């Protein structure tokens, strides 16, 4: 009986579907869709979540959560045809406060973030409210989200969609924008989402959503971004194939202010009368030039220099970057527009939603998450070394590394390091994930771990705070400004031992993580896309007013003075390899301060990175000694090429200097002393054709060898290769034939041996010891 009943229901359902399909086919055959599409259509609003009807009046609603949603009922079998529409509110009141309203449309593939259109209701002279939208394809279902984070009270009974023309819609938007500043924004160089638009894409879309509330916005876009016109109907879009002078001039003549948010400035000629608002996201290359190749550094200096020279006003994404602009380019009057956590904003989760989701996380699936493209400054290797140390203490801490898709070579390097340290099973890498999937991993993680060495802002940090995810992060650049006391900080994100200690405390202390999450919710409220748009608008208004004053006074323009990038004198990689004999261990145990010891050997000006075999850290005395090193890399020298991988990491990440030296310590009869190293560096300064200098116990004078012959170069290569690919015990000049190469691989060793010119320095010169070296 039960199965017969179910079968009857199934047959009835199939019959209904058949009737509906027949009706649709009839509509198509009679072309009724086009006929009906010429007339307005009204839809009842049906509350789904986070909305409650008030007792004050019929049709009055109160938003009760972070993601309020209405369904529009009454579509039937006839879709809304493609085209522009005026959305009229029936029974509407107080709709002008819905500044973050959106509609989601279904054209056959369901709702998604890609189908979202921001709308804004304008109040008519008769007291009614109208918004505008545009559909690129027929629409079969619509969801209306009246708010995004705010909790307004408003009235609404129905939404009426009236077909209109693109010309009528544009004219209406122009009328609404009368008296407003006309802003031209250049998004011509914005990459497609599938090719790495990334954070820049999220920032630009936030501007598209909010700037039209404050200015009349025209946006130059490439053909592959033409769909933005449907998603952001409050802005005017013009399609150009290049942001050159020929295609941009008419739009520059139209605008009151020109804004290029894509970390450069085009076109290369912008008339003097046009007020230009410039945006550079960060000046990382000025603090860490060795994080970039010589080609990349030259490009950044050229492109950013043009921004600072031509822009009439600069906008920075943090107070930290504002200080960088002042320091390196001598600019003033800089405006700051903080970014936000865009994924968290789009999710619209309430604190109750987040608490429920995090409560579902089970102990069996615990992990820390690090969402970062594996650029050098993101410092991924330190995490792998830290969890390797923790495993040897008996604690396994899994790490999920996301956003790794754009750097496959770096991912291969990270996997090699994990294999060398026997933690491959603890490391999971994910390329670019759908936002819903990344959100899931965020919310269900134990916490966000973030050892980055440089952040102009730190979007994932704000995402984590808004989502109640506790944070353990570094202290560099803008991070303290963004996070305040709402996160835990590494004591030293450049030392793997210190990082391991901090991760262990963070992982095991649930009460501390819970307290940090609560603080994060509060701190995260300081940032939003809306505030970002408001802050940028203030900069635009200030610039337009100042430009008018300068034009009236005929103020002269000038080129700003630039300061050089920060680069150290000498970077040293001091390797401590296993096994050590009893005398060497005794020598290390006598050292009270590892940093003073290195200063005695290499001079106080040397930036020393320690490379230590992981097996040596079983000795508690040695572990405590090395834990105080300013920079430390852990590796397992019993594994093939482990020393080379560690040397390459040093050469790429910590070689912030004009000269580098890799050597092995301790040495019972070391040639290195602070005064000798200082003299050797001066000798290299005086002999710019020398690529490197070596201490030579047999030399009685400083001598510059001639360039090696082909045979000599091959013999040098074969001699050094027997000891590995790392070039040791040579003070090597940055640049020249070694440009864009990194010590520790074959290409570097080959160039060093075959194209390098050696300066030989007496290794036994009688120089007084410099007692100040350790101070």
Automatic annotation (TrEMBL):
It comes from the Bacteria. Residues 377-520 form the Glycosyl transferase family domain. SUPFAM superfamilies: UDP-Glycosyltransferase/glycogen phosphorylase. GO terms for molecular function: glycosyltransferase activity. InterPro entries: Glyco_trans_1. Pfam families: Glycos_transf_1. PANTHER family: BLL6006 PROTEIN, GLYCOSYLTRANSFERASE WBBK-RELATED. This is Glycosyl transferase family 1 domain-containing protein.
